[in-house]
Amino acid sequence: MPENNSNGLQTETLDLPGWKHVYSGKVRDLYVPADDATAAEAGQDCVLVVASDRISAYDHVLSSEIPDKGRILTQLSLWWFEQLGVEHHVLASTAAEGVPAEVEGRAMICKRLEMFPVECIARGYLTGSGLAEYRKSGTVCDIPLPAGLVDGSRLEHAIFTPSAKAEVGEHDENITYDDVVAMVGDDIAARLSELTLKIYTRAEEIARGRGIILADTKVEFGIDTATGVITLGDEVLTPDSSRFWDASTYEPGKAQPSYDKQFVRDWLTSAESGWDRSGDTPPPALPADVVEKTRARYVEAYEKLTGRTFA
Q1: Fewest Cβ atoms nearer than 10 Å: which of 8, 52, 62, 155?
Q2: pTM, full prediction
C-alpha cells in the first residue's frame, strides 16, 4: 500500500511475511525482521534492502519508473562485491537463503551497520562538480591539481574527494579530508580514504578490460557492530553511484556519454519537458522513449561489465 514516509517520499510498501518496513530512501526500501523466527533465520542484526525501480534526478524522485532498474542494480552490486576483495555487508541474496520470493533478484539481506556520515568518492577523471571547482580554484575538495586540465582529463593518480551526506531532497556537500577527520577521527578517515581508492583502482582496472572507463564512484562504509570492522555497505559501482564511459568514444575536452540517467537529465532540462529546475514544481513524467533508452543503458552497462546476459 502507498504511504508517505518521514522523508516526504510516497512509496509502495510491500507486505513481506516476516519483515517490517522501516524506511524508504530515494530508490531503496528497508525492512527489518518482524518476528524472532525471521531474525534467527536471517541473522539477528540484519536488514532487508529492497531496490525499487524508482529513479531520481536533480534531487527529485520522479513519478516515472525504469522497468527492471532495481534488479539490474542489485545484480550488478552483487557481482562487484565478489570482485573487490573487501569486507562487505551482504549476508544473503536468494530465496533459498531467506530473501522473500516476492523480491528475489532485487533484494539483499545485509548486516546492519553503523554508517559513517560521509559519501566516500574516488575520482580518476575530472568532470562534474569536480570540474566546476577546478575551473574556479584549480582544486577539487581543496586538493591542488595541475593546470591545463579539461572536461574528461585523466588524473595522474585517483583522488579521494568526500562529501557530507544530505537528507532526501537536499544536495550532498563536497568537503575536505580535514572535514572527514573532524567528523570521524584520524584513523578512520585514513582507512576510509584507503579503502575507497583501493575499490576504485580495482574496479577501474576491471572496467577498462571490458571497454568501459570508470571516471568516478561513490561508496559508503559503516562499522559492523559485531566485529568492529569497517565494512562496505549500500550499493557499489552501479550507474547510479558511478560514472561509466564507453572507452571507444572517450575524448577529453567535452562531456562524455555515460551509462546512467543521462537521457533523463537531458530530457528534464530540455525545452520539451517544460520543467523549471530552479522552481518548486516537481519534474514531469518521462516519455516512453526516454524510459526505454534509460533502461537500455542500464542493461548495457550490466552486460558489458559482467559479461552476462540480463534476463
Answers
A1: 8
A2: 0.92
